[in-house]
Amino acid sequence: MVVVGAGPAGSTAAYHLARRGHSVLLTEEHRRVGFPVQCAGLVSARVLRLAGTDRMVRHVIRGANIFSPSLRRLSFSAPEPRAYVLSRSGLDQALAERAARAGAQVEPGWKFTGLKGRTSSGRPRLTFRTVDGEDREVEARLVVGADGVTSAVARAFRLRRPLEILPAFEAEVPWDGAEPDQVEVYLGRALAPGLFGWSVPDGGGLSRIGVAVRADTGRTARDYYRALTGQMARRAGRPVPPPVEVVVAGIPIGEVPRTEGDHVLLVGDAAGQVKPLSGGGIYTGMRAAEIAAEVAHEALARGEALGPGLQEYGVRWRQELGEEFRRAWFLRRLFLRLSDEDFERLLDLLDEEGLLSSIIALGDIDFPTVTARQLLRQSPALVRYFPKALGAWFRSGSPLAPVLD
Ligand SMILES: Cc1cc2nc3c(=O)[nH]c(=O)nc-3n(C[C@H](O)[C@H](O)[C@H](O)COP(=O)(O)OP(=O)(O)OC[C@H]3O[C@@H](n4cnc5c(N)ncnc54)[C@H](O)[C@@H]3O)c2cc1C
Q1: How far does residue 312's CA lie from ligand 1's centre (Å)?
Q2: If you classify domain 2-54+87-163+253-324 with CATH, what class do you get?
Q3: Which of 114, 194, 195, 223 is deepest in the core (most CB within 10 A)?
Q4: Is 277 close to ligand 1, i.e. is its CB under 6 Å away?
Q5: Across-strand partners of 261?
Q6: Which of 248, 289, 290 is nearest to 271 (CA)?
Q7: Atom of ligand 1 at shortest distance to CA of 42?
């Protein structure tokens, strides 16, 4: 079996396949697993459980400061840890090492370049180019495409890509926010159209400051980063220092319709398994990778590696994550309609209506729509921001998605 991409999803799939006794080749295009880093590394405790270690935790987060476009601040903080800031390269390395310990052959510096036909039994022949310029060819019973947002595996197997890709720019900056155990979130059409800006302290004097935006604004994510750090500097009364490291990457939003085909499964960003409201994909990608390994193992035991035999993968991961993705996707569409005045009013409402205690009690970065539903139940004023169909759907438990104009 071949797993392409040693990010969190790929190494998780490789580990769970290898520990079930399969022969697994895990390839990574870069010479070093975990580099370059393309992430803020903010995760829930679920990720630590899935990884089986907390050795890559750098810092604990207990709350958030949300800033409206006019920099009005809404602050909430819980007594217990709500999220963890990881060394992202540390996470990727720990997961690849775990896969290797379980028996996977890990090959950094092997870039998947395409398909070179099939064997007489229909197995795909994969081609790789190593960092030393050598070409390799491998035949696989099953390929797991875990090669991220630009997935070459998805292209080679003609599986459709995520609906939307948000350009993101993030920098590691010697900067302390006002509260050391809180993340900052910046909302507003001018500052971050399409998602938001963030600042995540790493507990060691650096903050990961970034922004992800719609692709069609005519400006780059770096332009928005400059605007964001300008705002932060004005608020703090001191300049934001130049970055020590920068990340330019894309965040896929919107699941792909089919995550499996003949001899292939897609996991993680390659499958669009990213939370539509935050762009976070570490937990969802790792969990889907576990499910992929489980289904692949069962299908191969039955001697099936064709699409129909692997369909169960799409069914199972959607059973667990699909409802949250669908609700979040609709909430995101609503979010895109909000004006800067709406953001101001929404933050006022959350403050005025005593809803902060619900956010503190329920806030879950992996399942934010659970909190959103509770807030809607509690606050009739909030419902006014929702088209009727969406408000009713959110307050009901119905899995049927509403029709929105
Ligand atoms: C700026 C930014 C900040 C983010 N912050 C967070 C956050 O705080 N929390 C969170 O949960 N998520 C965050 N995300 C999203 C998160 O980084 C991804 O969802 C997650 O990394 C997806 O994991 P993956 O294993 O599917 O893909 P990736 O992590 O992208 O791994 C794919 C791997 O495949 C390799 N690869 C690619 N092409 C090939 C090829 N042809 N051959 C071989 N190897 C290949 C790549 O080098 C890479 O190592 C952020 C994303 C961005 C862009």
Answers
A1: 25
A2: alpha beta
A3: 195
A4: no
A5: 264
A6: 289
A7: 8
